[in-house]
């Protein structure tokens, strides 16, 4: 009986070892297959980027300081194969600093090769700032353009805290330190400080529009009251140059000596900088959810856990409808 029991235990141990090594082998195989797919596929047009082409770069969604996008624009700027650039803009805006960084990167590209902005549904606030960095703006008749301005928002939860019986005590070096804050109504001095900061950034934004669109100061200010315009209204106000889509963008590039028969290749975000990055790319996350039997809709939650930012902070230039940024989730 003892020998039989020992044999059963040995078989179980062997089975566990075999299960472990089988699982480990499958993991290695999956890693190799995913790596091979991403490193050999031409889904980002890598091989095509070596031959003359027109680069398309998308600026979409809420704008933050985006190191990956800035690096991509720098690569476009330095690529001898890129003969012209179509900047596809579809954004309600975002942080002022983020818009400024992308604006400057686009201007650097435009110093070396022609850049045309093609607006989709929306180019508002910092989104319009970025579009104005191009040398020609094309938009649909029903596109939404404008919302030139700057804002600063913060919640005041002091009444809620009072109802809950919570009081926040603060000790600080000076009255305007960390003002305004969530826990007390803003003082007149704090509001005045923020207003001065907003006006300074607003003057800078208006100056960009004035310079890029060749307006007088009066013309720029008249359009910089936060209003939004349809594409038809925007062309009448000279905020854009032409109505249409990518064909019009290609037509303008042709006037700048770019062969309109060249292929248009989209320069997409790169997600294969590391093996870990491969496993947390959108396609890999979806593959993982399917493998685990989780509904594919859950991949969005997994993506959030990797660090996607959920809110705007500081000075922002963003178009709001009913207090919520357009396009925000």
TrEMBL record:
Chain ranges passing through the membrane: 20-39
Listed GO MF terms: serine-type peptidase activity
GO biological process: proteolysis
Pfam families: Peptidase_S49 (PF01343)
Source organism superkingdom: Bacteria
Domain Peptidase S49 per the UniProt entry, residue ranges: 111-255
Xref: InterPro entries: ClpP/crotonase-like_dom_sf, Pept_S49_SppA, Peptidase_S49, S49_SppA_C
Sorted UniProt keywords: Hydrolase, Membrane, Protease, Serine protease, Transmembrane, Transmembrane helix
UniProt signal peptide: none
Family that this chain belongs to: Belongs to the peptidase S49 family.
The protein's name in its UniProt record: Signal peptide peptidase SppA
Originating organism: Phyllobacterium sophorae
């Amino acid at each position: 009986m003892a020998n039989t029991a020992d044999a059963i235990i040995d078989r179980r141990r062997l089975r566990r070892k075999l299960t472990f090594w089988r699982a480990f082998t499958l993991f290695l195989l999956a890693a190799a297959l995913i790596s091979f797919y991403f490193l050999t596929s031409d889904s980002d047009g890598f091989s095509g980027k070596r031959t003359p082409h027109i680069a398309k770069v998308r600026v979409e969604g809420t704008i933050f300081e985006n190191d990956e996008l800035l690096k991509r624009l720098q690569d476009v700027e330095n690529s001898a194969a890129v003969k012209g650039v179509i900047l596809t803009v579809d954004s309600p805006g975002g942080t002022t600093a983020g818009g400024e960084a992308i604006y400057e990167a686009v201007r650097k590209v435009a110093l070396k090769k022609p850049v045309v902005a093609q607006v989709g549904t929306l180019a508002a606030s910092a989104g319009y700032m970025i579009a104005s960095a191009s040398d020609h703006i094309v938009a649909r008749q029903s596109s939404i353009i404008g919302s030139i301005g700057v804002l600063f928002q913060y919640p005041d939860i002091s009444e809620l805290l009072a109802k809950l019986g919570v009081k926040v005590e603060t000790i600080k070096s000076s009255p305007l330190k960390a003002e305004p804050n969530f826990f007390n109504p803003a003082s007149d001095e704090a509001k005045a400080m923020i207003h001065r900061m907003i006006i300074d950034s607003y003057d800078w934004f208006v100056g960009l529009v004035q310079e890029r669109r060749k307006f007088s100061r009066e013309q720029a200010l008249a359009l910089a009251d936060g209003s939004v315009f349809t594409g038809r209204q925007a062309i009448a106000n000279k905020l854009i140059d032409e109505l249409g889509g990518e064909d019009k963008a290609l037509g303008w590039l042709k006037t700048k000596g770019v062969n309109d028969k060249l292929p248009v290749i989209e320069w997409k975000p790169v997600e294969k900088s590391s093996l870990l990055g491969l496993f947390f790319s959108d396609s890999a996350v979806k593959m993982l959810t399917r493998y685990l039997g989780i509904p594919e809709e859950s991949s969005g939650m997994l993506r959030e856990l990797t660090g996607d930012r959920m809110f705007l902070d500081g000075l922002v230039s963003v178009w709001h409808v009913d207090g919520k940024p357009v396009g925000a989730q």
